[in-house]
Amino acid sequence: MDRRHLQLAPTTARRRSLSDPLAVALQPPPNESPEQRIVRLQAEEDAKRRSDRIDRMLKESHKEQQRKKVIKILLLGQSESGKSTTLKQFMLLHAPAAFNAERLAWRFVIYLNLVRSIRRILDAISPEPDGEDIDDLESTETASIIISGRPSSAVAGSVPAYDSYRRRLAPLLDLEQRLIQLLSDPEDNEEQEATHLPRGQLPQGSSYASGGHVAVSPPTPPPLSAGLSTSMPSRPAPRITIPRGPYSSQPSPVTLSPGHEVAIPPRSNWKKALGVVTRNQSPKGAHTGEIHGWWEDPHDPVHVMSRCAPTMTELWRDPKVRQRLAERRLRLEESSGFYLNEIDRVTAKMFFPTDADVLKARLKTTGVIEHSFTLAKNSEFRGGVEWKIYDVGGARPQRQAWAPYFDDVNAIIFLAPISSFDQVLAEDPRVNRLDDTLQLWQAVVSNQLLQKVNIILFLNKCDLLKRKLESGVRLNHYMTSYKDRPNDYDTVSNYFRLKFGAMHLAHTPNKARECYIHFTSVTDTRNTQTIISSVRDFILTGNLRSSSLM
Ligand SMILES: Nc1nc2c(ncn2[C@@H]2O[C@H](COP(=O)(O)OP(=O)(O)OP(=O)(O)O)[C@@H](O)[C@H]2O)c(=O)[nH]1
Ligand SMILES: [Mg+2]
C-alpha cells in the first residue's frame, strides 16, 4: 500500500482532510505535546518503511511472474543416435557465443576421433593370429560394423606394409592416452608429460594388445555409482569409473564404457579448460603482430598429429587396407571416421575447427547434462523463454538415469537413427540397433508419466540411409517385415515414418496426442536449423496453450 499522503505538505494535507476520512483519522491530536509528536512521527516513519518493503516485494513477485517461462526438453535415443549433435545445433542457433567458446576445445576430441580411427584400422589389418577377429571388432565402437556374413580371418588378405605402418604410427598410439587424460582431467594439463601413462602402466581394465596398441579388456560389470552431474546437483546420474590402478594413488580420471568407447566423466570441465584461448594461444602478439598460438607450444598434440599425417593418409588410401576393411565389414566413415578423408586439413598446425567439424566430433555422453539458453523476448513472455535441454547418455547402462526427468519435462525429442538397420549395439553385439530403437520408442510413447508430454521424432541419419541404400544394402535382408518393397530411399524412409507413427498410435496412453515426425540428418546445419525452429515454435505454442497463456 502506498502511503505517500503521510508526507504531504501541511496545506495539502489540510485541504485533503476535509474530504478524506482516512486523512482525518490520521491527523495528529489537537493538543499533541512535543514528545508525543516525536513518538508519532517515529511510528509513522516505521510504518512507511514497512509499507515500502511490502510494495517492493509485490513488484518483484509481479516481475518474476512476467520474467521467464522455462521450457524443458529431454533428448532421448540410443547411443550414437545424434542427441548431442542435436544439442550442438540448438546451441549454434540460439547460443552461438557459447558454441564459439567451446570450439577450440573440440580440437582435442577431433584428434582423439582420428587417432582412434587409425588404431581401429591398424587392429583390423593386423596379421597376427591372436589379433582381433571379427567378434572383437564387433564389440568395439560397433556403430560402423554390419552384422551379417561374417568373414573369417583366414580368407582375409594381408597388408604387406603393416609393420611399417605400425612402427611409423606408434607415436599416435601414445598420444591417444594423453588426449584421453587431457579431456578427462584438463586441470592436470600442466603435468600431462608426467602423467602420460607409459606402457605397462595402464589403468586396470585396459591393456595393450599383442600388437602394441592400446586395447581394452571387456569391462567387468561396471560399478554404477550414483554420482552428481556438475550441472544438475539435485539429480542423480550414473557414472562408470575404472577402479584405481596400481600406477597412481589417485582414482583414474579415464572412464571407459561398455563397448570400449572413451567416455569422459561428466564432471570434467574440458570444454571450458581447453576452449580458453590462453596467452599462449592468442592469435596475434599484441605489439609485434607476430602470430602466436598453440602450434608454438611443443607439447601440443598437433605436432604428433602433423608428423604422422603423411603416414595416416598413406594408410587410409592404401588399396590393400581398404580391401581388408571391406572384408571385415568395417565402415569407419559412418562413425568417428569422418576425419579420415581430411587428414591434412585436420592435422594442420593452425587447424581451427569449423562448425561442421564440431558437429561431427564424437564424444559419448555419460550421465545427464543440462544446457540452458534464453530465447529473445516475445509478446507472450516479456522476460523471454528459458530453454533447458537435457542431453542424456543413450547406451543401455545409462538409461536408468532418464526416468527422474519424465515428470517434469515439456517435450521429448526422440532420435531414431534409421540408417542403423544393419548394425549392432556397441554394448551388446547380439542386438540389432534398429530393433533396440523400436523397443525404446515403444517404451517412451507408452509411458504413463509422459502422456501429456509433446513428442517429436527425428528419423535421423537420413544421409547415411540414402548412401547405404544406394550402395546396394537391402533393408529386407535385415528386416523381413519389409518384404519385397522397393529398396529406394523414398519408399524406405516413408516405411519407417509409417512404422514409428503406427507404434505411437497403438501404444500412447493419450490418443489425443499428436506425434511430430521429421526426417533429419542432424549433422546438416541448414536443414536441421529449419527443423529446430519449427520444433521450437511447436513446443512453445503447445506449452502456451496448455498453461492457458494463449
Ligand atoms: N552422417 C551423419 N552423422 C551423424 C548424424 N547424427 C549424428 N551423427 C554422428 O554420429 C555420431 C554420434 O552422434 P552423437 O550426437 O554423439 O550421439 P548421441 O546420441 O549423443 O550418443 P551418446 O552420447 O552415446 O548417447 C557423431 O559423430 C555425429 O556426428 C547424421 O544425421 N548423419
Ligand atoms: Mg551424446
UniProtKB/TrEMBL annotation:
PANTHER family: GTP-BINDING PROTEIN ALPHA SUBUNIT (PTHR10218), GUANINE NUCLEOTIDE-BINDING PROTEIN SUBUNIT ALPHA HOMOLOG (PTHR10218:SF360). GO terms for biological process: adenylate cyclase-modulating G protein-coupled receptor signaling pathway. It comes from the Eukaryota. InterPro entries: Gprotein_alpha_su (IPR001019), GproteinA_insert (IPR011025), P-loop_NTPase (IPR027417). It comes from Daedalea quercina L-15889. Mg(2+) binds at residue 365. Keywords: GTP-binding, Magnesium, Metal-binding, Nucleotide-binding, Transducer. This is G-protein alpha subunit. GO terms for molecular function: G protein-coupled receptor binding; G-protein beta/gamma-subunit complex binding; GTP binding; GTPase activity; metal ion binding. GTP binds at residues 359-365, 460-463. One of its GO terms (cellular component) is heterotrimeric G-protein complex. Residues 1-37, 187-265 are annotated as: Disordered.
